[in-house]
Write a structure and sequence with these properties.
It contains twelve helices and eight strands. By secondary structure, it is an alpha/beta fold. Helix 2 packs parallel to helix 3.
Length: 320
Amino acid sequence: MAPIATHPAFAERVGGALRRDRLDTLQVNLGRFCNLACTHCHVEAGPKRTERMERATAERIVEWLTANPLRNLDLTGGAPELHPPFRFLVEEARRLGMHVMDRCNLTVLFEPGQEDLAEFLAAHQVEVIASLPCYSLKNVDKQRGSGVFDGSIRALQRLNALGYGQPGTGLVLNLVYNPVGAHLPPPQAKLEADYQRELAEHFGIVFDHLFTITNMPIRRYLHYLQASGQYEPYMQLLAASFNPATLPHLMCRTLVSVDWQGHLYDCDFNQMLDLAMPGTVDRTLWDFDAEALIGRRIAVAEHCLGCTAGAGSSCGGALH
């Protein structure tokens, strides 16, 4: 059997023609330090990681955004809130009139020094995109660690108390589902209804939307697939589920990713594989303006099948 990377649907429909449209989002990965070490984490983040963005790098990003206005700033990590430039980036992006998204693991709200984090996010109208891979304790703690489910529920209740997920507040709270096993996410709309029912009934929690995201076969999740003998079947599932209708909506077409040192990538997944944006090796965000990034070829590899399988997958959930 031919390698997955040369699967016809992948090579012909994705690899040969995928180019960037006009940018609307800058996604910034502040580093790989995190208070959790989740089994599905494509960043391979954890408490022992030392990669952290310096203030000078954050200042250069703000300078770039001032000269290249975009709609969205998407902050991720690790736990992005645990990196010193996080609040500076939020404040400056809001000053520039940008919509800011925080990819939050929820338990970070109870870390030392983060006692006022929820209030900070609300004061700056930051959209919280919170990882909650299931509405059951057993599945969440299996994927993310003992006690994480209870901490996540307390965090969601705290965010709700500040107005997050409540109609008319403008404080957006979205949840993220990742499959526990080596399979595709179920239909997003149905699962969202299940989450809304279960969380409201058992915990009094409300939220805006649920994003279903396919687990990417890279880093820690790749190790899990290989160790459990599921790598080849999973890759075959992704290839067999290729959906060309996802291609116009892929996040890499309107987003660029920047790492903790300012280097450019087509997405956060490529960043974790050190798969640089073509023509930008050893160059940084501030070596380009936004217009110069339009039309550039997007680097692809076999993991990209995860974004094009079934209903598709992006940082904003299903694509089709």
